[in-house]
């Protein structure tokens, strides 16, 4: 069974159940879960190892009232980084978030409070985002004299489109509630984002692991390809996934009319 002892974590907390559902907690509430360099290294460690440890789904949650306040601005200020040093910091962020997005294990973000700057970059690397009434989204980099460096130009622009992202950065626009859902920042708006994330994780974990691997890595890879190459890659992935031995029982159940049918509710 996956356990926290298998990781060296100070800024994150990890708990796994017998079914392989991992709850990963951003655990710097006193600093509003701001991402310091150490926390990013821990994210890399966790998301590098979990796919090989049999994790079936990850719930990414936060301690305290805010999900994540983005880059640790105090550390950044105190370190007085050179352009080269900060470029390397950004590359470590990309390493962490790419491991999340392309790792093949469903990651479901349970959001609350501030999901801002690098916190939104982190959330946008999850496969599903669940918001509650307290959740709000912003990219305050523009107002801080900064620019995004953790993949927002790719993932946030993917979610909301270029024009909205530019507006968020130029004006500090904050999205929350139904409007945040309608622009694509989250897929669910509920009273209890953690309970909903758990429900979604448990549902996703009922899929075959190889199928989830394809859903949570192949789709993202294919978005980076030409349509022609993506169609070819899709055929190759489907060749492997759609002929996997464990799928036979599910197909048999459909043929026997014992499998659940797709219904609207
Ligand atoms: C922090 C950070 C942080 C809080 N770095 N320490 N991100 C931002 O511009 C968001 C900056 N943070 C905020 O706007 C607010 O802190 C919050 C709205 C998130 C929360 O407000 P509040 O009133 O609950 O907390 P607070 O009093 O502002 O902060 C509490 C403590 O957390 C305080 O530390 P303390 O030691 O004085 O108690 C704050 O300094 C600390 N804290 N946010 C460091 N971000 C790869 S490029 C990515 C670019 C970016 O992400 S830019 C960052 C955008």
Describe the protein in words.
This protein has twelve helices and nine strands. It is globular. β1 and β2 form a beta hairpin. α6 (152-160) packs across α7 (162-171). With 265 residues, it is α/β, with parallel strands linked by helices. The model has no long low-confidence stretch (mean pLDDT 98). The strands form two sheets. A six-stranded mixed beta sheet has the order 1-2-3-4-6-9, sandwiched between helices. It folds into two domains: 4-205, 2-enoyl-CoA Hydratase, Chain A, domain 1 (Alpha-Beta Complex); 209-255, Lyase 2-enoyl-coa Hydratase, Chain  A, domain 2 (Orthogonal Bundle). Bound molecules: 3-methylmercaptopropionate-CoA (MMPA-CoA) (1HE). The site of 3-methylmercaptopropionate-CoA (MMPA-CoA) has 23 residues, from α2, α3, β5 and α5.
Write the layout of secondary structure elements.
Blueprint: E1 12-16, E2 21-26, H1 37-49, E3 57-62, H2 73-79, H3 83-102, E4 107-110, E5 114-116, H4 118-124, E6 128-131, E7 136-138, H5 141-144, H6 152-160, H7 162-171, E8 175-176, H8 177-183, E9 188-189, H9 193-204, H10 209-223, H11 227-241, H12 247-255
Helix pairs in contact: 1-3, 4-6, 6-7, 10-11
The chain binds 3-methylmercaptopropionate-CoA (MMPA-CoA).
